[in-house]
Design brief:
The protein is of the alpha+beta class and 171 residues long. It is built from 3 helices and 6 strands. The strands form 2 sheets. A 4-stranded mixed sheet has the order 1-6-5-3, with no helix packed on it. It has a two-stranded antiparallel ribbon with strand order 2-4. It starts with 19 loop residues before the first strand and ends with a helix.
Length: 171
């Protein structure tokens, strides 16, 4: 349970953290990441931007079957590039519920010296269940538009629409 935006809601964390822990490796490392699924539904983890074998890519029902509840999957790959990347759930809308984090791969030959890395992960949060957000957007792409708010009734909508400028009507 998290309290990011004014109320307590259920979230998905990695090692009890949102965002998940920053994974830090070196270019050329052979990586073994064991993902234990403690959720009540299947999950996968996608290693965004990494050049890895297709069967380690973590795209649910494309390169991997979801890890079942109580199951484990062993992601094994060699890091052939360097840079800053991220990992995230690739099953359902679990990423929007908190399953994501940063991944840093140091190059073989460092060009710069530094004492500390600071990783900033930018994300957003909604207390509304992401499944409900998705359903709302499928009903109306402007459901969350601040420029032309959802109206309580059809009559109010027609009234406000007639008073709106041509620009406001396009939104």
């Amino acid at each position: 349970t998290v309290h990011f935006a004014g109320k307590s809601v259920k979230a998905i964390s990695v090692n009890h953290q949102i965002p998940g822990p920053t994974l830090h490796f070196n270019q050329g490392d052979q990586v073994l990441i064991n993902v234990y699924n403690h959720l009540d539904k299947g999950t996968t983890v996608h290693w965004h931007g990494l050049i890895i074998p297709w069967n380690m890519d973590g795209v649910s029902m494309v390169s991997q079957k979801p890890i079942p509840p109580g199951g484990v999957f062993h992601y094994r790959f060699t890091l052939r590039q360097s840079g800053t990347y991220w990992y995230h759930a690739h099953t359902g809308l679990q990423e929007q519920q908190g399953l994501y984090g940063a991944l840093i791969i140091d190059p073989l030959h460092q060009r710069f010296r530094y004492n500390k890395d600071f990783v900033i992960v930018l994300s957003d949060w909604s207390n509304t269940n992401p499944e409900q957000i998705f359903a709302n957007l499928k009903k109306d792409g402007d459901f969350y538009s601040p420029e032309f708010p959802t109206q309580p009734s059809l009559l109010h909508y027609i009234h406000d629409y007639r008073k709106a400028s041509p620009t406001e009507r396009k939104h």
